[in-house]
Design a protein that fits this description.
single chain, Rossmann fold, 2 domains, 8 helices, 35% helix, hexosyltransferase activity, Putative glycosyltransferase protein, Glyco_trans_4-like_N, transferase
Length: 275
């Protein structure tokens, strides 16, 4: 069996960030499935390399967290066009596995199904366009209608849908009750993360503060103002709690300024680290 796996933000463990697609692709390859990954990078030219048993195609589509809305839309469109062009030159797969975000990657599956009648699985990592409509307060009824039509077309054409959380699964089922929606949440590497016995009852919290760590995307849709609000309340109550914020995104600079403005001495902003 041959699968073309599409994820615009594919990352390896040594790059930090979300590595779900890396592990899923490697797992499929270990089962004897031939996997080719199509993704993007910030370099100026196309390149292809081997990630273990997985061939990875890197399309030259720059993307940065500080991009404006229109710059992001342009990046999504460029990836869609370049991915279509590349797929047309590759050996036809038995299946496309397409991961969002962005939602526009799903259009590649719709196009491939219409062109070659090849089925596709659509993995929903975030609720788009529901999340940006709520967070960015998109009120224009024409824009909202267009976004929901795009979403509806992708979900209806997908042969299977994979959700990453019960909330996402329930939302899709409520919108499209006839679609089969599997729940495959994120997972941990139980070989890498070895459990340890911790004598919590003997811990001296005065010397070793309770640490709360957020590691991941720091975007406006992630709601991390609540993280800083909790740190503020803990500081007012004299709690010996340490709040660590690790990652990158378009809300990072604003959250830094909020941390300084509130003098949150219990908040520590850490750089994105490799897994």
């Amino acid at each position: 069996m041959r699968i073309i796996y599409i994820h615009q933000y594919y990352l390896r463990p040594d790059q930090g960030g979300a590595v779900r697609s890396y592990h899923l692709a490697q797992g499929l390859a270990k089962e004897g499935i031939k996997v080719e990954m199509i993704t993007a990078h910030n370099e100026k030219s196309y390149k292809v390399c081997e990630d273990g048993a997985v061939k990875v195609h890197y399309l030259p589509v720059p993307y940065r967290a500080e991009f404006s809305v229109w710059e992001r839309i342009l990046a999504f469109y460029r990836f869609y066009k370049q991915a279509k062009r590349l797929i047309s030159t590759l050996e036809s797969p038995d299946l496309f596995y397409i991961s969002s975000t962005p939602l526009t990657t799903g259009w590649i599956g719709v196009w491939a199904k219409k062109t070659w009648n090849i089925p596709f699985v659509f993995e929903v990592r975030d609720l788009w366009p529901e999340a940006p409509i709520q967070v960015l307060k998109i009120r224009n009824p024409i824009v909202k209608k267009l976004l929901y039509r795009v979403e509806s077309k992708i979900y209806q054409e997908a042969d299977r849908i994979v959700s990453l959380s019960p909330g996402i699964q329930n939302y899709i089922k409520s919108r499209f009750p006839k679609k089969r929606v599997a729940l495959i949440p994120n997972f941990s590497d139980n070989v890498f993360f070895m459990p340890k016995d911790l004598a919590v009852e003997t811990r001296d919290f005065a010397k070793q503060p309770l640490t709360l760590l957020y590691s991941g995307a720091i975007g406006e849709v992630n709601g991390l103002d609540q993280f800083l609000d909790l740190a503020w309340e803990a500081l007012k109550l004299g709690k010996n709690w340490r709040f660590e914020l690790m990652g990158d995104g378009n809300a990072l600079e604003r959250l830094k300024k909020k941390t300084w403005r509130l003098a949150l001495t219990n908040v520590f902003l850490l750089p994105l680290l490799i897994k």
